[in-house]
Amino acid sequence: MLATETYTPLVNGPTVFTERLATGLAHRGHDVVVAAPSPNGHRFVEEPSRGLTIYRVRSIPTPYPQQRCALLTRGDADGLLTDFHPDLVHIQNHFVLGRALAQAARRRQIPAVGTNHFMPANMLPHAPGILLRLAPLRRGLSAALWRQFVSVYRALDAVTAPSQAAAALARAQGLRGQAGGAPSRSATSAPDDDLGGAAAVQHLDGGAVPPA
User: Fold this and answer.
1) Most buried one in 9, 44, 97, 124, CB count within 10 A?
2) Rounded to the nearest 5 degrees, what angle is found at the Cα of 3, between the Cα atoms of 162 and 39?
3) How many CA atoms lie within 13 A of 182 on its CB side?
4) Higher-confidence residue: 189 or 66?
5) What are the C-alpha distances in Å from 87 to residues 23, 30, 33, 211?
6) Which domains does the chain have, with CATH numbers?
7) Using CB atoms within 10 A of its CB, is residue 190 exposed (0-12), middle (13-18) or buried (19+)?
8) With a threshold of 0.85, does the pTM exceed it?
């Protein structure tokens, strides 16, 4: 199961990464479920191709253009994992959807990994006006978002990033060490043409692991 706060019809880095990974894994014969916010606010299910199911959860608008915030309770997250029985949960963000499904996976002892796409600089320009005018508020919000990121991702079994720069950024925020008995490991993507360039991740120490 891939969990992402942003997915088609939006076009951005996390969307492209997740869509290529999902379609690549399905092409290889895996049954893949993507959990993503609904573009219209209502819950529904899509099956765009064989082996790929997109579960759209309830959502509300946000200040970010076309981006919606998922509404997923603890019971909803538990229900998703009960319905789909994933072997692995791979989150793309630390916000509502990713956090809820990572916590639900931990409760069920399902392995959970995450990829770091987070950049406060991409979000803050769309924050309410007062945050744009007051630098201390911007810095405070950025620091709070990074703390939330670390609290969610340090509990995962492995952490990956789409580039060395993104991995270094996560490490700079303190994402290292162990949590919940499993090591958090920064990594970078290793290209794989069969999986759309986002099939496996490469540990910074040289070992490769599959993300989903």
Assistant:
1) 97
2) 110
3) 17
4) 66
5) 17, 11, 11, 11
6) 2-207 (3.40.50.2000)
7) middle
8) no
